[in-house]
């Protein structure tokens, strides 16, 4: 890699306040606010709105849409019948 053209990568804590979840990772993001991590070191912290701890897909609270009913309603509305299906 050429020196001087790449951003500095450093440890950063990503915190989801809604779920009370925090993750220490490496990133090029920087923040003025800091937090003391479990290892006793202080790291910059970036607050995020959603993470794997609060996203409905990962928590299992996502809703399954009635796609069959939607398809049938679309076919009734626009004239395609079940007999015309390949």
Automatic annotation (TrEMBL):
GO cellular component, one term: ribosome
Pfam short name (any one): Ribosomal_L31
SUPFAM superfamilies tied to this protein: L28p-like
Keyword list, A-Z: Ribonucleoprotein, Ribosomal protein
InterPro entries to which the protein is assigned, alphabetical: Ribosomal_bL28/bL31-like_sf (IPR034704), Ribosomal_bL31 (IPR002150), Ribosomal_bL31_B (IPR027493), Ribosomal_bL31_sf (IPR042105)
GO biological process: translation
Name of the featured protein: Large ribosomal subunit protein bL31B
Single GO molecular function: structural constituent of ribosome
